[in-house]
User: Fold this.
Amino acid sequence: MQRTWDSFSKFDHPLVYTPGDNEWTDCHRKAAGSMDPLERLSVIRDRFFGSSRSLGGGTPIEISIQSTDTNLRDYPENRMWIRDGVVFATLHIFGGHNNNQPDVPGAVEEFVARDKANEAWLENAFEKARNLDAPGLAIFIHGNPFGELGREWNLGFARFLEQLRELTIAFSKPVLASHGDSHYFRVDKPLMLEGTARDSIENLTRLEVYGASNMHGVRVEVEPESAQVFRISQLIVEANRR
Assistant:
């Protein structure tokens, strides 16, 4: 964890982080130390989400945090900020089963509570974008909710996808949904209009970033005056050769 903190601190610009499964929910596995996932999550929240400011070694920016509600726990890792009129938000949705794991004690209860918090935060992000008449909205999560060919779609993402579909169509402006997890770079239109097999929801773009041993950077440039708002390019890093 200290190594990650030190790495984050080397960034010259504000850095915003959203957790993945390797950081905490996978920690119950023997190979990962047989640790208590909820204890790991608590440590991560204290270490990386203890303030309302961004991470990184540069000048931090203030970020909105999901506030405590009488019916919701506080999820400080769910964050939102605005740049050039565009709304950006992170949601704590991660790989594997998004912790919807009946065979792991306490996992489903944690998933249900966090899923409810994520639902409220996603609605909040779209509401903010509508109220500001924002030219676009960018959402960042860890897990791949859109599924893979040959793999069973996971119910841990069901409500998120349903809500994302409804809110994106109603918003009608560009929405970028960025994730990692399945380690395959792609930019596409992953959701179809209801009742069709070919007609994509055109204002939703999915960006999956590189991962695992295939590590390269991805740049997203924000152009509020343009029709697409988000311009995506790859930053290919050549391996050192001797």
